[in-house]
Amino acid sequence: MKKEPKKKTQIIAAAEKLFQQFGFKKVTVEEICQAAGASKMTFYKYFPNKIELVMHLWQGMIDDAMSKLDQLEQANAPFTEIIQMILEMKKESTAQMGNQYIRDYLEMTPELLSFYNEMFSRVMQRFMELIRRAQEKGEVRRNMRPEFFFAVVNQFMELAKNEQLAGFYDNYSDFALEVNNYLYYGLMPVPEKKES
Prior knowledge:
Layout: H1 6-22, H2 29-36, H3 40-46, H4 50-74, H5 79-96, H6 99-106, H7 110-137, H8 146-159, H9 163-166, H10 172-185
């Protein structure tokens, strides 16, 4: 894999840190350049605008997650282990985000929403394949349609925007983990009824 130029790496790292602290809507290209020790000309050499930089960061997170998922699949890991890895990654990523970053993420600009929808669609297609394989192994209820899960995830995204509900938790990371735990562990097989 080709190594990124040093200045580009510095811009990406500075932007990520600033976005985590202040959200990506309010942080300016000038602030990113100042934190990275780079000129605006250097910034624009690598990214046409700030939105493209946000997309680059998100794509990197997805690529990293897909790589970890590939490793687990190649090792023939059980579905529960895959879910645990997904939940751990979500917990780590939300723990690093400040409240403003999370608000910006939940209230995306139209340019980012289009990119997010495309990215989300690809991720969900991959996840539906995982569910189908888990169903074949008996690790997930066989009578549940993966498309139903996809629809539920969309509804949970709306639930994640509920600030009143999020207010019951110490921080957004705990709330996001609660939502994801409920979502993913709802996939596990329904326990057999014992004869009385």
